[in-house]
Amino acid sequence: MRLTLAAAGTEGDVLPFLALAHALQGAGHAVRVATHPAFQDAVTSRGLGFAPLPGDPRGALASRASEIAAVRPWKPVAHATTIRVGMAELLGAATPDDHRAACADAEAVLFTLPTAYAGTVAHELGLPAIGLSATPFHRTRAFAHPVLAGGARLGPLLAPLTYPPSQKLLGEPLAEPLRRRARRAAGLPVAAWPWRAAPAWPPVPVLHTYSPALAPRPADWPAQLRVTGHLPSPAAEGGLAAEVEAFLDAGPPPVYVGFGSMPDPDPAATAELVVAAARAAGRRVILGSGWSGIGAGTGAADDVLVVDHVPHDLLFPRTAGVVHHGGSGTTVAGLRAGRPTAVAPFVFDQAFWGRCVHRAGAGPAPLPRRRLTAIRLARVLRQLGEDRVRAAADALGARMRQEAGPATATAAVDELLAAGGR
């Protein structure tokens, strides 16, 4: 079939889905990926079709550096406002006509939550549609809402109560409707009891592309919600840069510290913090500068290497541990390599993934980025070297490497398309 796969956001929001697109093409489908122009080369170099969705994820995040740095979990309205405004800046450039053009001639549409309008276009055109999500957003008793309550420790009675207000604040596109008229139109019970998940919602199947070893599928989810296993980012071609190889060979395995696409209002101070913490813990460190350019002005040193961009799949297996923001893609890369992991969440679902890592024993409890100091980071780096943490990370990595996420998701897509997308 001719498929359009729409994905938008940062590298971690887009690149893993190229693994699925490539697997679908290998299964005989003709796949067009609709995403930002920044990812066009990554798409076309894998023999996939490309359709542009306007938007500048790097610029949108950079423009909200101060707001993201100031996020507080106990202020959900401010947290939700930061996310909604940021997403509007990121995705607002893509018009309905852009999505319609991306879906032109398609026989089915796969879409991520930031591109949910592609699902609406599929409905307009009468095409089968399948949702894709790297984070669980559907109401459950198993855990609280991953974004606005991702760090909360709530039991099965209280966890479901976090979903209706969180979904309303965030305007989640696949959230159950709260208004009576909308619920009647969707064939749902009028009363949206927080502890009851309606089996008729969401209206399309959703494949969750994360590891069940890290976050098992909730038993109370409706049947159309599946967990297929993680989608690793495309493997890097070639090897590590010569300077990285030389640094790795010059001493014991370093720790990697990097915050990826997250904006930082004071990159120089962050670099100083990381270097001071690493030295206090007696660790060599590779510092990923990320989109904020952290450490760009840091001088050369025997125990510190600053890198602009480095393939995680090649570097992480050779480190003593990784510290990062908790993006789903980076979390997968570190754990799949069997490396002890520490998460310093900024915003979005990052605290949720940090809690999952800690619950698995593969790292310490998440330490919010706003609370990160040299003393606290040094303590975290020492914890990454504990035998029990290293053993848990190694075991979790072995389980995750056994998963065949792209193949499992491809089989699920084929099954759903054969059933008309239901």
UniProtKB/TrEMBL annotation:
InterPro entries: EryCIII-like_C, Glycosyltransferase_28, GlycoTrans_28_N, UDP_glucos_trans. Residues 4-124 form the Glycosyltransferase family 28 N-terminal domain. CDD domains: GT1_Gtf-like. Residues 302-408 form the Erythromycin biosynthesis protein CIII-like C-terminal domain. This is Glycosyltransferase. The lineage of its organism: Bacteria, Bacillati, Actinomycetota, Thermoleophilia, Solirubrobacterales.
